[in-house]
Amino acid sequence: MTIRTEPLRLSRRGFLAAGAGALAATALGGWTPVHAVPAGSSGATLPTPAAFPDGIALYQQAYQNWSKEIMLDAIWTCAPRSPEDVVRLANWAHAHGYTIRPRGAMHGWTPLTIVNGAPIDKVILADTMVHLNGVSVNPGSAPATVTAGAGATLDAITTALQANGLGWANLPAPGVLSIAGSLAVNAHGAALPADGEARVPGNTFGSLSNLVTELTVVAWNGSEYALRTVTRANADSTALLTHLGRTFVTSVTLQAGPNTRMRCQSYTDIDWRELFAPAGAAGRTFESFVRATGRAEAIWYPFTDKPWMKVWSLAPERPATSREVFGPYNYPFSDNVPEPVTDVLGQMTAGNPAVAPAFGQVYYNTTVAGLAATNSSDIWGWSKDLQFYIKATTLRLTEGGGAVLTNRANIANVIHDFTQWFHQRIERYRALGQYPLNGPVEIRCCGLDRPDDVQVPSAGPPTISATRPRPDHPEWDTAIWLNVLGVPGTPGMFAFYREMEQWMRGHYDNDDSTFRPEWSKGWAFGPELPYTDQRVVEQVLPDTYREGVPADENWDSARAVYNRLDPHRIFSNSFIDRLLP
């Protein structure tokens, strides 16, 4: 869970965007991006790109990622109105030595869009959420599908699906995400089947990438950039399903299944030692909840004993004790942070990290009180309304961790080992008077990107998805997401993340499990910054996608597809050039 404590404010040069792709109507009935400075106006501070394509709005606007650790007062941004505009933009960029970075909801940590400190004089952001956001549902096809523009939000897509009796079983918590951005980093939810539960056709318990039936990208055809539609049966599709921003998706078609009613129960009275007990332990354990309902998430606030445990279950009829909800985001106390929490957070950001235990306790108390005040401990409604719960107005925290791929029978032991290690390390640092981590631990599980889930001819699973199965370990059927959050700027935070990442890579590297980073979060931690461990970026991480998979469907084959479809690297940046040379 992430929570934001204060509204966005204009930066010192007045360009800080109030939101990704936000618009304001003009007196002439057109539109103007909020806090934008149009090209050619007296307020522009950047050199105007020469011969920019006519009819595509170009303006200076600020950029910031989710944790506000990558921020620019101004960068050239444009709003293509159609996929054909993106093609014109790509060919202009190729001719004039520019790179194009697609911009969606900016809900991410990894420098896949903008690299801190890198030159931006030859970079154009293409905001996909202004115009490339159409949604069309085809409920009568086999399978039922939805086609969406790159900038369509998960909120908009699932709302359209719901109107047609359709939905998805496994959704990320933030509905504000764009679909193209979600697929770029194989966004996922917190869903597994309960014991004995059969998967409903049209759905997957893996990532959203595994729902794709076809997608359209901008690709080099030998003489120029052009639109190319790639079906799931095409061999190139496996690399494109999770592509880390190395291509430009203009639209995507995904399969869907029947919509479902769900129940979500919250528990705040289970001691973490009971909840995260090893396999076979008695009591209310994470393992027992997964066995019973399949869908669970723990949010363990720092230096507290009782996590916030959310448990979702299928419930065609409303249980007598459940409150019916008619929309998403049913935990307002986590989106609108009360003053006691902001007071403690302010002390931490002002240089008093020792208040971290108080921050955790205050936030736990706020959750308990908020659930009671909003009658949200037991709610019932449609699938998307229970799975979406993180708004863009939540606290922007840094996050590190990743996925442990393993057999379902190992869920309890994987979680037990991690939570024991984390507790011991954080308590050791506290004894030294140090508080490098001060945000919650988040634990959730989902399935893998099984090819059998796809109801159209398929060339295979997403090649570099974190939830891509390992053929040499067919028994591995589960991804356990272990993430820890922290307040940006906390002394020693990235060094702790580095220690944690190295422990996870070493501990979960055997016949029972393997570790993969979560693409949208922090990884390759150096002592002071993420994404700076050169060995991880250039060797260890690529090797993760070479082990146990066919040579023609691994890291190197995916890289070859990206380089063939974009040989001039107009859809890249300096970080991607290191990661995917």
TrEMBL record:
Q: Which UniProt keywords apply?
A: FAD, Flavoprotein, Oxidoreductase
PROSITE patterns attached here?
A: FAD_PCMH (PS51387), TAT (PS51318)
Q: Which residues form the FAD-binding PCMH-type domain?
A: 69-259
How is this protein named in the record? Cholesterol oxidase substrate-binding domain-containing protein
